[in-house]
Amino acid sequence: MDKDCSMYIEHVESGKRKVTLSLTVNDRLVVRDVDPQMTLLHFLRDELKLFGTKEACGEGECGACTVIMNGKAVTSCIILAIEAEGAQITTVEGLAKDGKLSILQEEFVSQDALQCGFCTPGFLMSTRALLDSNADPSDEEIIETLSGNLCRCTGYIPILNAVKRTIERERKELGR
Amino acid sequence: MEEKKYRSKYKHVGQPYDRKDAQEKVTGQAIYAYDLEFPGMLHARCLLSPYARARIVSIDTSAAKALPGVRAVLTGEDSDILVGLYMQDKRVLSKGETRYHGDVVAAVAAEDEETAEHAVSLIKVEYEPLVPVHDVDEALEGKTLVHEDINDLKHYVGVFFPQKDSNIASWNKSKKGDLETAFSESDLVVENEFSLPAVAHVPMETHVAIVQADPYSNKLKIWTSAQSPFAIRQIMADSFGISETDVEVHIPYVGGGFGGKAGIHLEPLATLLSKAAGGAPVKVRATREQEFNQLPTRAGMRGRIKTSVNNDGTITGMQATYDWDSGAYADYGVNVGKTAVYSGIGPYRVENASIDSKTIYTNKVFSTAYRGFGHLETHWTIERQIDILSQKLGIDPYEFRMKNLLEPGDKTMSGEVLTVSSGSPKDCLTAVVKEIGWTGRKSEEEREKEWKTGKVRGKGFAMLQKAPAMPANTATSVIMQMNGDGHVKMMIGAVDFGQGAITALAQIAAQELDIPIEHIEISAEIDTRANPYDWNTVASKLIFLGGNAVIKASREMLRKMKDVAGQALRTDPENLLHANGEIYHRHDPTRRLTYKDVALGYMYPNGTGIGGPLIASGSSMADGLTNLHPETGQGNPAAVWTFGAHAVEIEVDVETGNVTVLKVASAFDIGQVINEKLVYGQICGGVLQGLGSAVLEGYKFNSDVQLLNPSFTDNKIPTMKDIPLEIVPIYIENPQHNGPYGARGVGEHPMISVPSAIGNAVYDALGINFHVLPLSPEALVLGIQSGKKSILCTDVDCLPGLH
After folding, report:
1. pLDDT at B803
2. Are residues A158 and A116 in the same domain?
3. B33-130+206-254+261-293, superfamily in CATH?
4. Which residue among B28, B202, B727 sits closest to A121, beta carbon to beta carbon?
5. Quick one: which of A67, A149, A157, B436 has the most CB atoms within 10 Å?
6. Last residue of a domain, one of A37, A65, A91
7. So where are chain B's domains?
8. Residue B590 burial by CB count (10 A; 0-12/13-18/19+): exposed, middle or buried?
9. At B508, phi and psi to the nearest 5?
10. Smallest CA–CA separation between A46 and chain B, in Å?
11. Is it the case that residue A5 has pLDDT exceeding 70?
């Protein structure tokens, strides 16, 4: 991050160092005092109680904890919360708008692109970040991007089908 | 795919409905054991043995205990409780000796994970490293016993056979006919050895258990990411000497299982920690590394097989020896070993045969059930052997199999007679062979020509069979109640960990009751206080047993509804029919009621009520199964066989050894599709998992038997880059006479025999027979460079020609 540390307000609370962090999560501004060593994943789960984002390896290897930060997919288990100072974050909870599933979510349902569902939030966020930066990726680009997310249930083919159908529908219905 | 859509003859059964749990899973609402928090909940961390086998000389926990925030520190000195599914051989915490690199030596419960981890780092243990038992050969020599007390271990008598003063947790046997004569009188006898390493399940949610031990009673409250709530209840009761009713098991959504969560794992440790911490709820969650090196895996296996054939292609005899490297504990491993004695010759008609299957203790990570329950391993042996036999006989491998595949009237290994409703192995094979356009093996000339291009294509196929490996008295049950709105609440005791159980069973209920599937209320969450009994969610048995229980419950519900409706409509209930959520008179359809009208009892205009809330239940039990004879292995172990076949076309890059899978055709005789979308999901997922076992995955141990690859960096599973270019699912529907709508299970089957089909295709491409998995790029390159035509080992050390 191209920020210098002096921008964080640091103080001590119950003997622990804390910094004040403000960022936007799913279009909502949040301000919290956090341990500077806290990961973004723990911030989302423990501080904001957004349990949709999952940890499956804790080492940035499996993509289950993927969220979108300033338009890019990041593995939140290896990012510090304070690196997200001032950032725009979207988690799986932010995909559906106005009480309606997004096209991407609808296609994951209709193509059966999930089984146990534990990796699903990560796949949704990786896909969303890809399609937001490239509305018409090739199969190779989709596969390259999503090969960073592990799934042990589906065999990926239904996921690939869901992503391809999403691209088609977003073009038709949203004019992307 | 679009043009080949499956069409069902039923209104609900067979329809490609969306899974019921999908919406919660795409919105982040689905809650797993990993997500659960409770007031006052403590977090646990474990100290694992750094040695495969060592004597614990001393443990100093004083610094850990003194750390603020620590609430409990336990070692093996604190509890002697033993757990185990079939053999009570596993201590919750090691005492005296550790048995694998991953055995729990000490555990801490603290106010947060960081404190628990810090406390673990303060525990000082002095070990005296001991020479471990490295492999099955050393184990069979028996110089060192992994379990010195093997003669005294409590076990399931008559089903499992631990051998005195040995490392054999169970030696199961089967035999029939006269093998000696078959071997001496046949035209050709071929003997081969095949092996494959241990492979991890890799559920995306690692094992998690939270236990709250009531300090004022025997009551245990358990929340866990497990497949089998009622098995946990029973084993916890057995191990802790309490009543099953004292154990309350809650299962929220489960992030994948594949057999790895079928037994009991972290629950006993969480229980001991909760007790030590005064009854606070304690959460134990495996890290990804612990998922690889502490939690159990699929056993490594070595199969030796000797087969006699006549020149006309008739198989006359088969002798198989399966040695399972079960690691430190027996867990489900002994049952995997047992299953091999009735399924371990494949779906073939062999009159003279014998199988010896030994589940063997070593000092490796211990083994448990894994999707396929030993069948991927045994079929790796059988289906490669069949292919090699056909090479030697000079007979087309399709013709050779067709000549010997089971047909109605034939007997299985254990003597069960197949009928026309048992499904057809031949239909499966014929379908996949046709789909990949098999025209016979490649000639040497064709191979050489292709070799010059750097890429060689090959085709191969393999059979598979599996029946649920379950006790003869396996049972499941269903409770239904009609809600006030005429919808039906249905409760089962089996867990939907992604395989689609709740959706498929709801479809059967919708079909029986003739109401929309949205009107079936069913939850994936299980609470043993409310949900009815199910044995275990394993073995691909739920569609068969659970589906039948749903049918029984539905029919009881209809009968009770019609009894009330008959009174209300002033007619004999026998005159009533039902459709679309309504009950009507068969001769005068204007006399009708909706389900809603009778759901909570029918009310007359004057307010008088009759009937009362409608409730129904259904139980289903395996019918006519028996234990196997301890010496001959004869008996009825299989409630329902599902046969299948895979055919593949691959391309091998002869420079890099990389295998590209161009096409997989997979056919299963499942009797009746219950949900096309879910079956397709099982096939895609199973095939890719099988492909992982075929070309990628496997545990690697060093000479101290420490696991070298307990991470995603070093223990790769397939990613989206590894998908075959095409998967063609083929559903064969020869109905099972006693299956629900004729259906059979198919959850595990798509994984079985994928490695065998790939191995056979590698032979077609390269003319080299590989006897060991995985067929990784380095294995293929080493094999090619060795110049040998049979590769029994792909370690560099085994191929001295390369040095």
Report:
1. 47
2. yes
3. Aldehyde oxidase/xanthine dehydrogenase, a/b hammerhead (3.90.1170.50)
4. B28
5. A67
6. A91
7. 33-130+206-254+261-293, 300-470+628-802, 475-621
8. exposed
9. -65, -40
10. 10
11. no
Buried b / exposed e over B219-233, threshold 16 CB at 10 Å, is bbbbbbbbbbbbbbb
On whether the B300-470+628-802 domain is CATH 3.60.21.10, my answer is no
Same fold: B33-130+206-254+261-293 with B300-470+628-802: no
Determine contact: A48 vs chain B, CB below 8 A.
Answer: no
- Total domains in the fold of chain A: 2
> Is-contact B218 B44, C-beta < 8 A?
no
Residues 6 or more apart whose CB falls under 8 angstroms from that of B291 comprise: B200, B202, B203, B206, B207
Q: Positive or negative, the Cα torsion across A147, A148, A154, A160?
A: negative
Residue A114's closest chain B neighbor by CA?
B22
- The answer to whether B364 touches B174, Cβ cutoff 8 Å, is no
Question: For position B2, what pLDDT does the model report?
Answer: 43
B291-to-B288, B710, B715 alpha-carbon distances in Å: 5, 8, 12
Answer whether A121 touches B (CB < 8 Å).
yes
Is A158 within the bounds of a domain? yes
- CA–CA min distance B678, chain A (Å): 7
Q: Hunting for tokens 């209300």 — which residue is that?
A: B568
Quick one: A85 and A131 in the same domain? no
In the numeric block, the tokens 């009531």 are attached to B214
Pairing of strands B642-653, B659-669: antiparallel
Other CB atoms within 10 Å distance of the CB of residue B693? 28
What CATH number has the domain bearing residue A24?
A: 3.10.20.30
Q: Which residues of A touch B258 (CB under 8 A)?
A: 152
Which amino acid is located at B257 in the chain?
G
**Per the domain annotation, does A132 fall within a domain?**
yes
Q: What is the DSSP letter of B109?
A: E
Alpha-carbon Rg of chain A, whole angstroms? 17
Domain that holds residue A27: 5-91
Give yes or no: residues A83 and A111 share one domain.
no
What pLDDT, on the 0 to 100 scale, is given for residue B3? 46
Residue B392, number of CB atoms within 10 A of its CB: 11
Rounded CA-CA distance B282/B269 in Å is: 9
Cβ pair A116, A153 in contact under 8 A: yes
Q: Is the pLDDT of residue A2 over 50?
A: no
- Together in a domain, A161 and A141: yes
With respect to residue A98, please indicate whether it lies within any of the assigned structural domains. Answer: no
Q: Please say if B377 is a catalytic residue.
A: no
Residue indicated by tokens 């596969």:
A143
pTM of the full predicted structure? 0.97
pLDDT of residue B796: 73
Question: How, if at all, do strands A88-90 and A16-25 pair?
Answer: parallel
Q: What is the ipTM of this complex?
A: 0.97
Q: Which one of A68, A91, A114 terminates a domain?
A: A91
pLDDT tens digits, A108-129? 999 999 999 999 999 999 999 9
Whole-number average pLDDT of chain A: 94
Task: Write down the pLDDT at residue B1.
Answer: 40
State pLDDT tens for residues A19-41: 999 999 999 999 999 999 999 99
- Least Cα distance to B477 among B538, B561, B548 occurs for B548
Nearest to A158 among B30, B498, B684 (CB): B684
pLDDT of residue B801: 58
CATH number for position A162: 1.10.150.120
Nearest Cα of chain B lies from the Cα of A103 at a distance, in angstroms, of: 11
- Would you identify the CATH topology of the domain B475-621? Aldehyde Oxidoreductase; domain 4 (3.30.365)
- For B194-242, the pLDDT digits (tens) are 999 999 999 999 999 999 999 999 999 999 999 999 999 999 999 999 9
Judge contact between B193 and B792, C-beta under 8 A: yes
Spans of chain B below 50 pLDDT: 1-3, 803
Q: Give CA–CA dist B798/A12, Å, rounded.
A: 61
Place of tokens 């925030």: B69
The CA distance from B716 to B726, in Å, is 22
